[in-house]
Amino acid sequence: MEALPSLARLLLALTIFSSLSLLACSSSLQDLQIANAERRIDVTSHIIKVFLTLKVENTGTSPVSEVLLAFPPTQVDHIASLKAAVTIGKKKKKSYVPLEVNPTELPDAPNGTKYFKILLLNPLSAGETATLEVLYILTHSLEPFPAEISQSESQLVYYRDSAIILSPYYIKQQTTFIRTPSTKVESFTRVEPTTRAGTELKYGPYKDRPAYSYSPVLVHFENNSPFAVVEELVREVEISHWGSLQITEHYTLAHAGARHKGVFSRVDYQGRSSGVSSFKHLLARLPPRVHSVFYRDQIGNISSSHLRTDYRRTDLEIEPRYPLFGGWKATFLIGYGLPLQDFLFESPDGRRYLNFTFGCPLADTVVDKLTLKVVLPEGSKDPSAVVPFTVQQHLETKYSYLDVVGRTVVVLEKKNVVPEHNSPFQVYYSFNPVFMLAEPLMLISVFFFLFMASVAYLHVDFSISK
Ligand SMILES: *[C@@H]1O[C@H](CO)[C@@H](O)[C@H](O)[C@H]1NC(C)=O
Ligand SMILES: *[C@@H]1O[C@H](CO)[C@@H](O)[C@H](O)[C@H]1NC(C)=O
Ligand SMILES: *[C@@H]1O[C@H](CO)[C@@H](O)[C@H](O)[C@H]1NC(C)=O
Which residues are the signal sequence here (predicted)? Predict the structure, then answer.
């Protein structure tokens, strides 16, 4: 008889608790408002950088520990990287502390809005304000229009966004600046007040906009920066305990700008104002102390490359066999060696680790799909990778000549990679030095058998005429 009332009480308590937590959840959205927002959108290259400064204010009564960022569903798929930091101190003593950002979902998000959640270092108490700096990178967000141009034409593109920042919070005051590569702006949507000066387009200031305000704008402007997109990049980093790191990179490069119309004329191309949106040279930034560099395509070695080195880095300037116009592709291979002691270390627990740079060595390129393969020495065990952002991982086995049991390959995959992803990552593994002897032993036995075979051959008389 006692059981029933206590169950009822438990249910009641649960109901109260869940409705309370629902209240807490929904109220934190109303508790925050943005006192001031400033957004700077840089569309000078095909990799768009957006700097957003938010002055967040807690106008509620309870502390708030997270701030939401909202994006239209069409934009969220193009976000390659999103970072947030909080500013501490004022003026000259200002410093930035990075904050954790994670994608998140809200029930009944209007019009499919997508969210990212910024976790604050310390909860923002009632009445307090905090200044957040957000940087996000958009790729494939400039649409060439016209979609096809001839060799003598300049490239024009569309950029779409909202003049008013999409936010789940009330915004007291906001301004958006769009920086274009040149003063050649064909047209732009006006959402008063809108002003244009030089290469800068200013939307706002707008005052007192409710949550989820949205006002689409279209900017049509000239952009002749190289739209270099590596559709697929496979980088293989092979560790040999015999002193070197061998890197091989397979590129499928495309010009993602307006498609080339008509025939390509090399004579016209020599002229100055021709093929302004095409690109001829590419710069690969490699680590210092590289050796045995090669650069080749299906036809063979390409000699038109220049190597400049200093103690900090190596610049490899490569030139494909033909200039790349919109819609054109080139596939090629770059390979180089590096001294092992610059990249392979021993961790305090006795394991070895490779500390190398993720991303793509080509400057200002977007990589649609990057596969990074780290080939560990034969006999390596328990590999684990530490990468500062989410990547897909799996293991493979590679066999090359002289291998007895094969080599473990740590495969890391990431889509939508931009230069911001060129940061260090580590692959840890344990290694038994006995395996270092495997290769020489194999070599010795191969030579021994060859020797025995030749001795046998010399001693066998094949002649039939005696
Ligand atoms: C959703 O989209 C429709 C049509 O684009 C628009 O009229 C409406 O205001 C939007 N609703 C919200 C909450 O943004
Ligand atoms: C291409 O270059 C590599 C490295 O410089 C060299 O080993 C190879 O022999 C060259 N191949 C041809 C066909 O020239
Ligand atoms: C990896 O190398 C970078 C510099 O290239 C260095 O800043 C970082 O501390 C290294 N990480 C580890 C775990 O050794």
Answer: 1-26
